[in-house]
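Bug: token stream looks shifted between consecutive jobs. Job 1:
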Amino acid sequence: MTKSEKPYSRIQKQNREKILDAALVVFSQFGFRGATLDQIATAAGLSKPNIIYYFNGKEDIHRTLLEHLLDAWLAPLRALDPNGDPREEILKYVRRKLQMSREMPRESRLFANEVLQGAPRLGEILGSDLKELVDEKASVIAQWSSEGKIANIDPYHLIFSIWALTQHYADFDTQVRTILENQDPFPGATDFLEHVYTSILRA
């Protein structure tokens, strides 16, 4: 049993969450290579030995964060209902991904940094859980296209485009807000993306 798996008391669970919250801030700012246990300990308000008590080092903390994040990241795609209205199901997915960029920008940047590094800690999961889910939902979208319910469109590139256009607002937040002079970009982004995908999907 690893440190990440063993049972903890309520206080110990709170300390683990405090460490993970602090690590999210540090990793999203400095990346895996630039982050240190000392920085995480300082951000968590705990000593470095406390950190080591709960996790087997920086790698263990980073992997735990990524695994938790991936569950949340895949939930909106899992929710795509084969029996629902095709255009509304896809638009709901777009809205939820945009909402996640608004509410979880640090998590988005953490995931982006991992992928940019070649996914050394998530490669196996990306090649199994993520690929299986994307294959499943791509098949649903392809079926909708073949039935004439939406336009004839490549389902994989549709999904990739949704990731790119929604996560941009989290991963490049500083650039977006600078250009918009610190205006909230999300109302306009929601309207724009709904218009784009409504147009693209029209059979």
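Job 2, same session, no restart:
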Amino acid sequence: MTAQKPRTRIQEKNRALVLGAALEVFSAHGFRGATLDAIAKEAGLSKPNLLYYFASKEEIHVTLLAGLVDTWLDPLRELRDDGDPQQELLAYVRRKLQMSRDLPRESRLFAQEIVQGAPRIGDGLSTDLRSLVDEKAAVIQGWMEAGKLAPSDPHHLIFSIWSLTQHYADFDAQVRAVLGEDRDPLKEAEGFLETLFSRLLTP
């Protein structure tokens, strides 16, 4: 089998350009609503040029999602079992909020894939995601059994952190419609969520 040649700097640059454009198009229109023509236009490339780097719309989508799953796991990986339990969980909340601020398009792309039943990343969710969540849930359960946190279901605690932080990216238009454009939802959310989870977690 012939080894694949390493990509040139121009090839890497154009692949990144296509992926950035695709992120914009997919996050706005979903997989079904996105077209190769729209992605090529957003990237400033011809459609044949785009197809030199990616064979199909699905290949672009899967490439984006594969990188995104790993990015999504990073904040939970940082939860340390030797840290102060409450501070570790509050730091996790802050990291997830920061992701909503920094990566709103990625969050919406991920949410769309999940709502559709995760047809392209289902295997990763049932292996990588599940094993990491189970690992961290066991840590949280140990903290609860040691009396360091108020008892609750660790898995559902993690789910609640996801829902209460990612909401600000996935439903940004709704949040801003209610609060108005002169307020910073994520800045306000940080204080609110720290208070909420502090009360929930304190033994």
